[in-house]
C-alpha cells in the first residue's frame, strides 16, 4: 500500500462517448428578484446544456451580474446554447416570445465524457456486461463498494453516507438492489481501516479547493476532476488495499470486482438550487491510477448536499446502476424522450412517496428491461395462445413481436406496477408495458429504442411531459385491448410491420396483472445477428462495402431479407444497395473475395436511416458460413463500439469486415477492429418434401365441449418425429396438442388448415380440417352492476342486470332476491334494474347480498350474487369557489364528515397551473402566484380514499386577483387577508373620540389619518 502512480492515457474508454449522468431534480425553487418579488424556477436540460424555466414555460438564466433574465435558445454550427434576451425578469414584465420552449424548443446536445489526457488509449463499451451470461441462472453475488467522502479547503463534508448506502432494515442502496434483484445482489462494504473499520467508508481531507465544475464545455473541468480523484487515491492509500479485489488476476479492477464512489463536499448541481461549490453527479472513467500494483479507472461521483439537506439515495442508486451493473440511461441525450418516472434509469431516481421530505428519498423500482439487463430476472416468454398472470413482486414477461429476430428484435416487457415498496411514489397503478423498437437509436435522440408504450396514446413521455395514470393498462382510459389494429397499435413497436399478436381483457389488481394473449407460433424462422443495440452511434465515411460471415449452421437455409442501418451521404438522394454472396475465405487481415463465385442476391434502396429489407425472392445459403457483402451508394454505414445486447446472446461477437467498393474486389475486406455494424440476416428453414402428404379431416362435436382430434392418422409418409404447424386458424374454437376446444356458445361449421414439419426439415402440404359444432340450449348470461359502490341511509342505489344475452332463446325473465344484510326496500322484482334503499339507519357498515335469477323459455337459468356495502356514515367533502389575493396562501378543508383515522389517503388529481397546491395535515394548502396582470381562476381537484377503499372526489375553484378587486373572504385563513387587531382597535377608538365634540377635531383628524393609512398599507 506504499506505491501509487498515475498513468496518463491508460483509461479504458473511448472518445466522444456519452457520459452517464442523472436528470435534473423535478423540484421548483423560489428565488428573490432585485425588485423584491419572488419567482419559482425549475432546472431543465442535462449536464451539458441546462437552464431554468418558470411555470409558463419560459427560459430563465442568471447573468454574470447575478440578476435573472429571460433567455432564449440559439443554434450554433456545432451545438446550441442558451443566451440572454436582455429582458430582465421582474413582476409584471412580459416574457419575450422567443423565450418560450413550446414555440422555440431547445435541442439538447449529447452529454460528453471528461476525456483522459492522452489521445492514445484502448476502447471498450461504457456498459460492461461480462459478469452475467445470457443463460439465466439465479446466482447470489456480492458487490463490493468503497465510499470515499472528500472534504476540501473551501468545503467540508457535513453528512455521513454509511447508512444511506449500506443500511439494513431501512431504505438504502443495499436494500434497494437486494429487493430489486429478488435477494440475488448484495452491495457489501469494501474492507478498509479508516474510522469504523470495514464499514466501507473512508473520510479524507484534500489540501485543495473544490473543483466546482460539472461539464466538458468547461475546458478545465476534466483536468480538475482527474487531478482531484488522483489526489484522493493518494490520500486513502494507507487505509485501503486495492490488490485483493483483482479477482481475475489481470492487473486491473473492473467495477464488478470493486466499485468506487466519491462523495464531494458541497452541492449537487442537478438539484437546481444554484448553490456552490458544486458537481453534477455522474459515472465515468478517470485517468488510470495504479495503487498496490493494480490499475483502476472507473468511478461515480456525488455531492454531499442537495440544497439544505443530504443528497437523497435515488441519484446514488441511479449512478451506481451505471457503475455496478452497466445500465444505460433511459432518457434521450439529445431530446426530451424518457421512460419518465417508471424506472430508476429515467426520472424514477427522483421518486418521492407520501411522507418523504425530498425528491429522491424513495426511487421507484427498476423496469423489467433493466432487471433482465442486470441479470436479476429472466422474463417469461409469452407466446402462442394463453391466459397470462404477472405477479406484482419480482415477476415480468416478454413478448417477442418479430418471428425472425425474437429476443434481439422488437419486443414488449410486461409488469404489474402497484404502490408497494419502492413503488409507493409511482403516479399510476396497472400493467406497464415497456417497448423495444430496434429501428430507433438507443438513447441519442427521441424516439428512443426503450420507451414506455403509453396506454392513453398521448405519448407525453416523448416530449418531456411527466408520467401519469394514463401510461398503464387499463389506466385512466380503461384500455384493455391491444393489437395491430387498435388505435394504440403494436405496429408502433415494429416500425409498421404486422406482428399478428393480440392482447385482451387486461386487468390489474394489488397482487397481479392479467390478460389473454394470442400470437401464432411461427416455425422455421431465425436470424443471424451482429448487434441491434444501436447505442453511441457513429457513421463510417471511408468504407462503403461491409461484409458479414453468416453461419447458418449444419443445414442450408433460405435468406429472406436483412436488417441494416446507414445514413445518407447526400441528404437529397436515397441510399442504394447491392447484396452479394461469396464463399467465406478468411485471411490474416480479413477475408478474400472470389469474384468468379459472386452471386447477386438483391438490389434496391434502403429505408430512410435503414431498417428491414425483404428480398424480391428468397436465396438459399449453403450449410456453414457464407460471406454476404453490402455495397452502398450514397450511404454511410452505421456502427458502434459497444455491444449493448450482448446479454441476449451466447454467440459473442460475429465476424464483420469493411472496405471500399472501388477496391475490395481485388484487395479483399479487412477486419473492423472494435467496430460493430448492426446487421441481421433473416432466415427460414428449407424445403418442402413431396412424399409427405397431409390429408383433409372432418369431425363433429357438441356445443361448448372439447374433443381429441388426431390430424395425422390418415396422412401419408409422416416422419417419426414431427410437429403440427397451423396455417389458417379456427374461428369457432382452438386446436393444440391433438385437442379441439370450441368457443363458448359457438355453433356451426368451423375450419382450419395445418401442415406437418419434420425435425429433419421435411414439410408437407396444407390440409383442411372441418369441425361441425352441434347446438344445445344455453343458459342466459349477464352481469350485475351498481351505479355507485356503497349505500347510505337516505340515498338509493341502482342495481342492474346488464349485458343480458341468451344465444338460443328469444325471451328471458328475471327475479331478484335479498339473501342477507339489513332490511331494504326495492321496486318491481321483474325488471332489469331495481332501486334499493335502507329502511333504517345502521350503526356500523354491513354487507347486503342480492341475487338475480334469469331464466329462458326452455327452463335454463343463471344465478348471480352481488354484495352491496351499506355505510353507516357518509363523507362530506370540502369544495366550492374560493377567492384569494396574489401572493397569499389559503388553507381549505378537504374532509368534514369522516374521522381522520378512517382516511387511507388523500391525493391531488389536478394541480393548479399558476399557483401551488399541496396537502398538509389533511388540509389543502393553496399558494397564489406573487402577481399577474389579470385575475386568474384555476381548479384543484382532489380524491379522498377511506380505509375500505371507497373513493370520493371534489374540487375547489380558486380565483386570485389584486387586493383592490378582492372582496373579503371570511372563510379563508389567508396569511394576508384579515384585519389586524390593532387596526380594529384604532378604528373603534376613533368612533369614541368623535362623540366628544368638535374641540378635539385636530387630534381626531390626525389619528384618523394615521390609523387608516396603517390599515390600508397592511391590507395591500
TrEMBL record:
Keyword set, alphabetical order: Signal
Occurrences of domain Peptidase M6-like (ranges): 163-373
Source organism superkingdom: Bacteria
UniProt GO molecular function: peptidase activity
Record-linked Pfam families: Peptidase_M6 (PF05547)
Position of the signal peptide: 1-20
The keyword NADP belongs to this UniProt entry's keyword annotation: no
Any single GO BP term: proteolysis
Name by which UniProt lists this protein: Peptidase
Organism: Vibrio mimicus
Amino acid at each position: 500500500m506504499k506505491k501509487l502512480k498515475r498513468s496518463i492515457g491508460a483509461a479504458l474508454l473511448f472518445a466522444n462517448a456519452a457520459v452517464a449522468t442523472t436528470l435534473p431534480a423535478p423540484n421548483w425553487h423560489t428565488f428573490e428578484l432585485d425588485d423584491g418579488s419572488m419567482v419559482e424556477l425549475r432546472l431543465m436540460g442535462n449536464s451539458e446544456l441546462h437552464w431554468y424555466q418558470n411555470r409558463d414555460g419560459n427560459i430563465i438564466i442568471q447573468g454574470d451580474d447575478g440578476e435573472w433574465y429571460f433567455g432564449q435558445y440559439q443554434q450554433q454550427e456545432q451545438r446550441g446554447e442558451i443566451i440572454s434576451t436582455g429582458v430582465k425578469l421582474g413582476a409584471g414584465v412580459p416574457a419575450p416570445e422567443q423565450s418560450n420552449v413550446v414555440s422555440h424548443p431547445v435541442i439538447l446536445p449529447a452529454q460528453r465524457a471528461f476525456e483522459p489526457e492522452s489521445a492514445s488509449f484502448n476502447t471498450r463499451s461504457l456498459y460492461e456486461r461480462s459478469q452475467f451470461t445470457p443463460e439465466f441462472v439465479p446466482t447470489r453475488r456480492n458487490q463490493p463498494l468503497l465510499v470515499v467522502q472528500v472534504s476540501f479547503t473551501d468545503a467540508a463534508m457535513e453528512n455521513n453516507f454509511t447508512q444511506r448506502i449500506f443500511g439494513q432494515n431501512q431504505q438504502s442502496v443495499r436494500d434497494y438492489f437486494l429487493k430489486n434483484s429478488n435477494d440475488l445482489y448484495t452491495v457489501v462494504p469494501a474492507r478498509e481501516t479508516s474510522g469504523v473499520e470495514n464499514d466501507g467508508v473512508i473520510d479524507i481531507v484534500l489540501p485543495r479547493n473544490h473543483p466546482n465544475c460539472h461539464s466538458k464545455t468547461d475546458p478545465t473541468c476534466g483536468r480538475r476532476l482527474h487531478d482531484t480523484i488522483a489526489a484522493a487515491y493518494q490520500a486513502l492509500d494507507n487505509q485501503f488495499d486495492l490488490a485483493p479485489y483483482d479477482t481475475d488476476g489481470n492487473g486491473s479492477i473492473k467495477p464488478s470486482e470493486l466499485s468506487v464512489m466519491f462523495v464531494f463536499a458541497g452541492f449537487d448541481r442537478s438539484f437546481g438550487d444554484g448553490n456552490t461549490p458544486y458537481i453534477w453527479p455522474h459515472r465515468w472513467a478517470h485517468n488510470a491510477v495504479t495503487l498496490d500494483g493494480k490499475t483502476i479507472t472507473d468511478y461515480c461521483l456525488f455531492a454531499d448536499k442537495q440544497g439544505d439537506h443530504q443528497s437523497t439515495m435515488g441519484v446514488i442508486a441511479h449512478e451506481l446502476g451505471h457503475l455496478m451493473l452497466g445500465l444505460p440511461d433511459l432518457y434521450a441525450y439529445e431530446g426530451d424522450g424518457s421512460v419518465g418516472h417508471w424506472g430508476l434509469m429515467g426520472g424514477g431516481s427522483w421518486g418521492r412517496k407520501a411522507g418523504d421530505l425530498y425528491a429522491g428519498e424513495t426511487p421507484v423500482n427498476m423496469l423489467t428491461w433493466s432487471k433482465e439487463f442486470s441479470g436479476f430476472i429472466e422474463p417469461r416468454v409469452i407466446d402462442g395462445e394463453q391466459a397470462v398472470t404477472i405477479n406484482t413482486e419480482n415477476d415480468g414477461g416478454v413478448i417477442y413481436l418479430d418471428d425472425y429476430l425474437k429476443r434481439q428484435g422488437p419486443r414488449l416487457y410486461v409488469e404489474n406496477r402497484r404502490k408497494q415498496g419502492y413503488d409507493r411514489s409511482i403516479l399510476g397503478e396497472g400493467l406497464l408495458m415497456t417497448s423495444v423498437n430496434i429501428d430507433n437509436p438507443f438513447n441519442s435522440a427521441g424516439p428512443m429504442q426503450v420507451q414506455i408504450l403509453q396506454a392513453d396514446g398521448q405519448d407525453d413521455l416523448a416530449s418531456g411531459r411527466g408520467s401519469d395514470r394514463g401510461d398503464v393498462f387499463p389506466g385512466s382510459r380503461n384500455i384493455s385491448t391491444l393489437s395491430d389494429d387498435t388505435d394504440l397499435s403494436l405496429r408502433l413497436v415494429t416500425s409498421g410491420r404486422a406482428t399478428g399478436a393480440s392482447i385482451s381483457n387486461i386487468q390489474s389488481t394489488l397482487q397481479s396483472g392479467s390478460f389473454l394473449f394470442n400470437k401464432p407460433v411461427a416455425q422455421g424462422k431465425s436470424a443471424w445477428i451482429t448487434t441491434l443495440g444501436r447505442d453511441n452511434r457513429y457513421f463510417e465515411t471511408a468504407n462503403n462495402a461491409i461484409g458479414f460471415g453468416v453461419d447458418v449452421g449444419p443445414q442450408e437455409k433460405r435468406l429472406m431479407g436483412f436488417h441494416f442501418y446507414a445514413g445518407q451521404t447526400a441528404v437529397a438522394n436515397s441510399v442504394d444497395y447491392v447484396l452479394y454472396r461469396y464463399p467465406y475465405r478468411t485471411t490474416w487481415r480479413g477475408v478474400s473475395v472470389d469474384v468468379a463465385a459472386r452471386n447477386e442476391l438483391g438490389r434496391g434502396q434502403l429505408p430512410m436511416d435503414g431498417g428491414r429489407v425483404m428480398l424480391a425472392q428468397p436465396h438459399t445459403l449453403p450449410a456453414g458460413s457464407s460471406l454476404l457483402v453490402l455495397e452502398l451508394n450514397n450511404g454511410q454505414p452505421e456502427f458502434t463500439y459497444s455491444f449493448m445486447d450482448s446479454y441476449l446472446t451466447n454467440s459473442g461477437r460475429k465476424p464483420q469486415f469493411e472496405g471500399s467498393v472501388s477496391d475490395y474486389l481485388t484487395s479483399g475486406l479487412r477486419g473492423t477492429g472494435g467496430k460493430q455494424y448492426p446487421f441481421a440476416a433473416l432466415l427460414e428453414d428449407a424445403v418442402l418434401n413431396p412424399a409427405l402428404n397431409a390429408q383433409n379431416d372432418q369431425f363433429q362435436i357438441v356445443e361448448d365441449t372439447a374433443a381429441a382430434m388426431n390430424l395425422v392418422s390418415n396422412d401419408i409418409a409422416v416422419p417419426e418425429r414431427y410437429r403440427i404447424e397451423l396455417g389458417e386458424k379456427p374461428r369457432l374454437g382452438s386446436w393444440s396438442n391433438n385437442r379441439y376446444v370450441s368457443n363458448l356458445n359457438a355453433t356451426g361449421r368451423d375450419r382450419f388448415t395445418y401442415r406437418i414439419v419434420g425435425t429433419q426439415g421435411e414439410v408437407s402440404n396444407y390440409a383442411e380440417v372441418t369441425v361441425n359444432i352441434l347446438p344445445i340450449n344455453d343458459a342466459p348470461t349477464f352481469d350485475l352492476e351498481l351505479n355507485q359502490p356503497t349505500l347510505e341511509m337516505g340515498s338509493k342505489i341502482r342495481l342492474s342486470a346488464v349485458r343480458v344475452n341468451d344465444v338460443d332463446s328469444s325471451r328471458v325473465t328475471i327475479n331478484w332476491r335479498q339473501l342477507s344484510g339489513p332490511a331494504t326496500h326495492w321496486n318491481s322484482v321483474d325488471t332489469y334494474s331495481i332501486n334499493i334503499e335502507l329502511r333504517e339507519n345502521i350503526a356500523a357498515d354491513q354487507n347486503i347480498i342480492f341475487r338475480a335469477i334469469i331464466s329462458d323459455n326452455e327452463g335454463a337459468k343463471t344465478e348471480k350474487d352481488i354484495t352491496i356495502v351499506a355505510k353507516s356514515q357518509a363523507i362530506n367533502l370540502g369544495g366550492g369557489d374560493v377567492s384569494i389575493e396574489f401572493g397569499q396562501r389559503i388553507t381549505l378543508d378537504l374532509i368534514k364528515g369522516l374521522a381522520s383515522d378512517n382516511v387511507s389517503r388523500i391525493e391531488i388529481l389536478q394541480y393548479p397551473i399558476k399557483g401551488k397546491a399541496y396537502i398538509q395535515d389533511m388540509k389543502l394548502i393553496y399558494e397564489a402566484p406573487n402577481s399577474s396582470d389579470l385575475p386568474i381562476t384555476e381548479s384543484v381537484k382532489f380524491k379522498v380514499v377511506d380505509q375500505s377503499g371507497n373513493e370520493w372526489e371534489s374540487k375547489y375553484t380558486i380565483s386570485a386577483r389584486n387586493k383592490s378587486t378582492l372582496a373579503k373572504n371570511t372563510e379563508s385563513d389567508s396569511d394576508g387577508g384579515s384585519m389586524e387587531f390593532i387596526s380594529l382597535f384604532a378604528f373603534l377608538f376613533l368612533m369614541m373620540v368623535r362623540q366628544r365634540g368638535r374641540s378635539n377635531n385636530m387630534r381626531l383628524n390626525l389619528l384618523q389619518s394615521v390609523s387608516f393609512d396603517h390599515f390600508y398599507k397592511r391590507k395591500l
